[in-house]
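Task card 7
Instruction: Convert sequence to structure tokens.
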Amino acid sequence: MSTFTAINLIARPQGGPIGPELFEIVQKPMPSVGEGQFLVKQNHMSLDPAMFGWMSADTESYIPPVALGEVMRSSGIGEIVESQHPDFAVGDRVMGMMGWQEYVLSNGAGLNKVTAPLPDEAVLSVFALPGLTATQGLYGVGKPQKGETIVVSGAAGSVGSIVGQLAKADGLTVIGVVGSDEKADWIVNELGFDGAINYKTDDIAAKLAELAPKGVDVYFENTGGPIQHHVFAKMNAHGRIVVCGMIADYPKAVPDLGPNWIQVIKKRLIIQGFTMPDHFGDVPALLQKLTPYVMKGQIKHRAHVLDGLESAISGLNLFFTGDNKGKLIVKL
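Output:
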């Protein structure tokens, strides 16, 4: 094989669905492996809501946008097929930022060996970005205490589902916000959440009053949208709001208005946004925190796998429609 397929970003989203006009599918020459380098065949690629920020023109974000004409950014997992690096051998599995491409040449920077005897899908669903994000956000920002009540939006998603399970294992009352009855059933009857709100069909205020009669202590925000106003109104004094994502606003040219700050003063609320690039140095400690929950069987997951590199383009829209069931992964 003399070439491989990659997908470059060639235009910025302008609001609305992600279309093929934003990308260019190209054939790249297979690189030669030099001293201190190795070649990875990527097997599974992660799709994450953070990609919408990476595609935007916003230069003031937490990470520079993907340059036009460059390979679209993403994390993935693969196997080393050729190596001239003393610390990485042929056959090693590695994980890290690889981009939308079948092969990647690396000197090892930003890639880590995968030693857990788990399938690629499980590694990307739990121990990669979703699990790290959930652990950092919940414990680093949310600071949950046994007996408190937490509401998680996007609760059936890759991050939200892990947040809810961690909180439940720690003795909190856990309420999840989802977009379908199937997802509501899954988080309650499979993951052990105490209750679920279908924001598309339920009376959100009434359902929240029923499920959280004593108010809300921690709100883990993944989606934005109307639910944020209802939960904000139910926050208890000294509550913590963890702002992880705003998927409802990503496709909009003008984001919706957020809640008024008077409540922040009255309730002495702590509201904090966070992103994982600030905490990559904490990954070993985060994995040490997360792993015991996984080993005890307290963290379940499911993956929504798309087939083929090009499926990533249309697959991103599943975040907007909510039709994905579990961690979005592309199998190459």
